[in-house]
């Protein structure tokens, strides 16, 4: 552990503060009638148990936050119902509607040629007047892959790489399976250094009965004083747990941490989880405020803390946790799931992508066994915490599946049976304050809703492309039509409209602060505009900056990363849903319609100025969610942008349909994406190294 980093941190070594007790959410009818405090025990409260009478609880009244989340989930369910009807709507279709005329280069200059198609699936398809026999050329068949690195399998891009970067020698089999891609890119990576650990000594003092029953000698670490432990724990819960809320702050600080402070460490679950949280706490401190690992042309690296790729921040705590983890590796409880999730997050922070994935697979497997082998009161705080752990695993799995094509586990079969978490009370004061200032609960719920929409959109596109491949029609893109995809993409617009007001932003202003702030957040506002005259002005102050050379602004509660992640996943979803039409332009230009061209323009416009590329988020990359996916996503965009300068139809679409903002910001966006990959490449991130090798010969 870097003791200096802890002692000098701006957080300070605050003493342990007493957490606020549980907030009473309901009382039984008897206690209400008697107007006395109810202990809320289930199935009977203490008073009713003593009086031996029936105890009835009323259903709690939903809060405004609960109602907002319910509205989001209801809209998602409506989207799912509509998408489930898609195969039936498309049955029997064999060719384009006659109105879908191919696009010529000259028609791009005619604004009247871009009349939008209908807003329902029914208007997208029509029964053919004539069936044409024969098969299309195989190069025109679009096979839908969500993983961005698989665009290197497109014939046009393979030709580009052969001409511009022949040394890259892309192996198709290497790219076809995500697991092979992940393993092959990580083979030359040296392991984490094992010579970094904590000096320990035997614990001397009184142990609790539970500790004595477990047996074994407990140890302490002289360099790890209680103030440092508390500071590291607070650092974790004020950053990582707002990004991935599967741990309970109150339980950890009041129970687990107190036990480790007073009784030392052992090979039990509490000790392992505490050490992992300390490791991530140091990552949060050093990863945002520590020294950059490198300086490139006077620009500090966005990777901070540690000394080399094999000695990241928190390594001493992590190594101690790995020494003890064997004794609790196969337990079947919530803590086991949390343990694997914490391990995965640490591997992610030091760009150990293979280990991150394997740890998440273990977490998902443990979560699957936990849920299917027992029954829970899902409305209780513990039940909601299990739901939070499940949806954390599900979100990670889905992201890795969509972005890198890694296989899903059997845990995903439970998705329709597990409700989304509603984050019920009780909360400790720090979580309550963090939510009031950063809206972390709303961010988390909105990410979950966006994830489900993305899955449904990609399933819809996959179904359309599959029907095209299986069709006997000679024309490509009989089913994968512009209007059909735009209808899928419209669900993203609906999602944005359903966001809580404190999360809203203007579509063309991804770097701005949220548009509206609720009155109850007047104290300690993160956004200064809400307490200044600027709030009355039409222009919004910026939360993110393109200046990545200067020291970034520090926002509490990882607020900038929460906002950047939500917005970037939204723009990435738009890019993904429209990307098939870039393939169509490159490989079947004679079939491109004005509506197709508009979709290509939407795809290109959605790539501009993603917030995670900007400062402050890009200046603390160790804290960025889904770190393993972004480099190859940026690679795909950079290749498409390069092709747009040489392919005549793509160039015409850019020149005539992408608008002023695209031309003003695309060069800066390219610069930021290249800098992201270079930064991670210099830090020996294996996926970034591979992406860099693909870009050589194209951009320099």
UniProtKB/TrEMBL annotation:
Stated name of the protein: Zn(2)-C6 fungal-type domain-containing protein
Pfam families per record: Zn_clus
UniProt GO MF annotations: DNA-binding transcription factor activity, RNA polymerase II-specific; zinc ion binding
Listed PROSITE patterns: ZN2_CY6_FUNGAL_1 (PS00463), ZN2_CY6_FUNGAL_2 (PS50048)
Keyword annotations from UniProtKB, A to Z: Nucleus
Zn(2)-C6 fungal-type domain sequence ranges: 27-57
SMART domains: GAL4
Signal sequence region: none
């Amino acid at each position: 552990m870097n003791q200096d980093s802890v002692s000098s941190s701006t957080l300070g070594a605050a003493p342990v503060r007493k957490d606020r007790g549980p907030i009473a959410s309901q009382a039984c009818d008897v206690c209400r009638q008697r107007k006395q405090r109810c202990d809320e025990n289930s199935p009977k409260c203490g008073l009713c148990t003593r009086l031996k009478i029936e105890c009835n609880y009323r259903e709690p009244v939903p809060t405004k936050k609960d109602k907002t989340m319910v509205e989001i989930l209801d809209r998602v369910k409506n989207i799912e119902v509509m998408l489930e009807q898609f195969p039936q709507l498309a049955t029997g279709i064999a060719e384009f509607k006659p109105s879908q005329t191919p696009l010529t280069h000259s028609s791009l200059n005619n604004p009247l040629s871009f009349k939008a198609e209908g807003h329902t699936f029914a208007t997208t398809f029509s029964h053919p007047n004539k069936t044409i026999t024969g098969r299309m050329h195989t190069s025109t068949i679009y096979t839908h892959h969500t993983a961005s690195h698989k665009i290197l399998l497109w014939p046009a891009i393979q030709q580009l790489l052969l001409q511009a970067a022949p040394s890259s020698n892309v192996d198709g089999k290497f790219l076809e399976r995500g697991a092979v891609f992940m393993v092959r890119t990580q083979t030359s990576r040296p392991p984490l250094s094992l010579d970094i650990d904590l000096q320990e000594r035997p614990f001397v003092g009184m142990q609790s009965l539970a500790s004595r029953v477990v047996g074994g000698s407990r140890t302490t670490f002289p360099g790890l004083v209680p103030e440092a432990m508390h500071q590291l724990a607070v650092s974790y819960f004020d950053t990582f747990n707002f990004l991935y809320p599967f741990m309970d702050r109150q339980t950890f600080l009041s129970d687990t941490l107190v036990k480790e402070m007073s009784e030392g460490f052992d090979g039990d679950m509490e000790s392992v989880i505490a050490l992992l949280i300390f490791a991530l706490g140091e990552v949060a401190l050093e990863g945002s405020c520590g020294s950059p690992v490198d300086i490139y042309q006077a620009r500090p690296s966005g990777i901070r803390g540690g000394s080399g790729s094999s000695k990241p921040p928190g390594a001493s705590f992590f190594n101690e946790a790995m020494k003890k983890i064997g004794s609790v590796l196969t337990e079947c409880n919530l803590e086991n799931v949390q343990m694997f999730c914490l391990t995965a997050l640490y591997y992610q922070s030091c760009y150990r992508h293979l280990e991150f994935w394997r740890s998440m697979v273990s977490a998902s497997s443990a979560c699957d066994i936990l849920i299917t082998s027992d029954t829970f009161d899902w409305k209780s705080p513990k039940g909601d915490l299990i739901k939070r752990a499940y949806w954390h695993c599900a979100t990670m799995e889905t992201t890795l599946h969509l972005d890198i094509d890694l296989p899903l586990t059997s845990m995903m079969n439970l998705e329709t049976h597990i409700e989304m978490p509603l984050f019920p009370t009780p909360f400790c004061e720090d979580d309550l304050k963090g939510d009031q200032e950063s809206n972390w609960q709303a961010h988390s719920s909105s990410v979950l809703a966006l994830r489900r929409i993305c899955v449904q959109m990609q399933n819809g596109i996959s179904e359309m492309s599959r029907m095209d491949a299986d069709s006997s029609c000679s024309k490509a893109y009989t089913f994968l039509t512009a209007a059909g995809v735009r209808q899928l993409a419209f669900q993203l617009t609906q999602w944005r409209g359903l966001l809580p007001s404190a999360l809203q932003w203007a579509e063309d202003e991804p770097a701005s602060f949220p548009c509206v702030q609720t009155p109850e957040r007047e104290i300690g506002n993160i956004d200064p505009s809400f307490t200044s005259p600027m709030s009355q002005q039409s222009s919004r102050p910026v939360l993110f900056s393109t200046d990545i050379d200067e020291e970034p602004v520090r926002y509490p509660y990882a607020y900038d990363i929460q906002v950047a992640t939500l917005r970037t996943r939204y723009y990435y979803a738009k890019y993904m849903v429209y990307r098939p039409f870039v393939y169509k332009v490159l490989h079947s230009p004679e079939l491109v319609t004005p509506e197709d061209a508009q979709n290509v323009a939407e795809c290109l416009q959605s790539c501009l100025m993603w917030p995670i590329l900007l400062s402050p988020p890009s200046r603390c990359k160790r804290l960025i969610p889904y770190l393993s996916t972004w480099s190859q996503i940026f690679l795909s965009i950079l290749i498409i942008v390069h092709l747009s300068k040489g392919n005549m139809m793509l160039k015409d679409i850019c020149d005539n349909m992408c608008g002023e903002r695209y031309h003003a910001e695309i060069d800066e966006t390219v610069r930021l994406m290249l800098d992201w990959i270079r930064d991670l490449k210099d830090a020996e991130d294996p996926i970034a190294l591979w992406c860099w090798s693909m870009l050589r010969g194209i951009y320099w």
